[in-house]
């Protein structure tokens, strides 16, 4: 590999990683707070992409879609948590099973409403061009994705560390029961967190659509598969873990696939296995094995 | 399901319940009875063989999962054919039995077995993924069930292979679609004969993609062509930028690719956003790269791509014009290549039955009748190769062009009567 090629592939890997962070951040947030691996996360991501598709078709505005899809998904999450998940609180495995059911329903509803054809979304005007970088032209949209990922991580970090809601989330992650005993309305907190997780999935659906496409099957691959990998590699339930996971998995998957293409599908799982062997809690995970 | 009544109590007591052994036996035998009941008590369950009786066709197609739209398209073609023929093939009213394999081989194998044992279908059609076609081959062969493959293109299904691995031809299996050789070898041969000899390959890394790439390479080498390298992304790859970046960093400008559906869209979009057309790279491929499902999403980004296939919606012959018009009258969309394959499968069966007066009682006679079928299909002259049961068909060289705001495959050349080399 020439230095130019390494540079270009590193850009590909980092922009892929940024997409993975946007995709995984919601899953990580919900897990951290509620101890629930939300297996409907991929379906939320898919629904976000299809909502965006409809908004763009109706109005022609990608930016409007970027607002509407997360809002719609947030609303869905805000309804689903009290309606379904809350009834099974404390029974984590049952909650996980429930989210599988939710994902099946969502995916089938998408098939009924939007059809089962392969679709795609274009990058918005202004970001659909290319710029010249070392070694040739590079799509502006992928640079935008990188910037967006960094901005989102920074914004989430600020909310997490500097705001009252962030304080509540951190406290909830530590001990939700104690937080309830101190007078915080944990029902509302859980519903809001679940809604935020779903909104982030919807956001990922919009941002990723011009790169990953919009098609049946996207709920599991890349949706759920990659977000689980990122969260497991980075460390369950922490923001810094999701960042570390995506920064490692994005480039590793990119270089792995082109360098070892005959075992491309195994590369990502080799990374997971290696990280878990060396650090069973993930790169920046908190110890929670005893729970 | 009376057997489950007691569990309501159990559920109330706590959120988990266990079936006692007795409850399990009661419930499962009730379920078993319910499942086999109708078949067991219907007196006319014997296969309907004589003319005029109902003809049962099992359709094994995906209606959920990633290939659902292919299944939908093939279902539309089936129902269109029947609608245009008074719901009959020859003199037999048709009963369709659909099974959804959801692109899961194990599910599809079970459905095929159900078609054989329980539904006792007269003929089976369908099958989108090649692994499923290979998976049901032995069961179909053993049951002497006539199976008309209307998509899966793996070469082995209509060839003699060592120990029948991964599959091999059967007297009872016909193919109304194509073999991967037919959409890959001729264009390799054609391009190298025209003087375009050096190619880089990009193909989806699964059975069908590697087979297509290998057949293309064989065709290329026949006239002294060479392959300088390859990239092979996994099937259903989310991000194509890394692979297109590899292509951009090697000197061979002609790239032969095998992708379809979402992969084709991802590949073509990355190809453009990374500036390959401006850098002088040219895209070639098997026809699925630029079929309607892809073109309607990528539009003029695919302009200039040269691909080969046995059909194109723009193909100028009376049968195709009628087919496209009929299809558009029945459904609010253009037919695709999968619809043509299924439509031709129905037509072939119809013609064979007509020559037998609708009599399906003698399987060997039906096989012979299918072997003798010839007709003008939307794709051109259609017949089965008598020794392999793969179709003999013309292959068209198409180039993507945008005319009057419509992006289409324009036919630039034709390779007549391509026969799979299987014996």
| C-alpha termini separation of chain B | 55 Å
Mean pLDDT of chain B: 89
Report the top-level CATH class of the largest domain in chain B. Answer: Alpha Beta
Give the amount of beta strand of chain B, in percent.
15-25%
Radius of gyration of chain A: 19 Å
Morphology call of chain A: globular
Helix coverage percent of residues of chain B? 40-55%
Gross morphology of chain B is globular
Most extensive interface between two protein chains, with residue counts: A-B, 47 and 37 residues
Strand line-up of the largest beta sheet of chain A: 1-2
Structural account:
The complex is a heterodimer of chains A (291) and B (423). With 291 residues, chain A is mainly α. Chain A has one domain (3-278). Helix content of chain A is 74%, strand content 3%. Chain A contains ten helices and two strands; from the N terminus they run ααααββαααααα. The relative contact order of chain A is 0.20. The model of chain A has no long low-confidence stretch (mean pLDDT 92). Residues 1-19 and 33-48 of chain B have low confidence and may be disordered. In chain B, strands 7, 8, 9, 10, 11, 12, 13, 14 and 15 form a nine-stranded mixed β-sheet that branches. Chain B has three domains: 2-36, no CATH class; 55-178 and 316-389, Rossmann fold (3-Layer(aba) Sandwich); 181-309 and 396-418, Response regulator (Rossmann fold). With 423 residues, chain B is of the alpha/beta class. In chain B, helix 5 (130-143) links the parallel strand 4 and strand 5. The termini of chain B are far apart. The chains are: A mainly alpha (291), B alpha/beta (423).
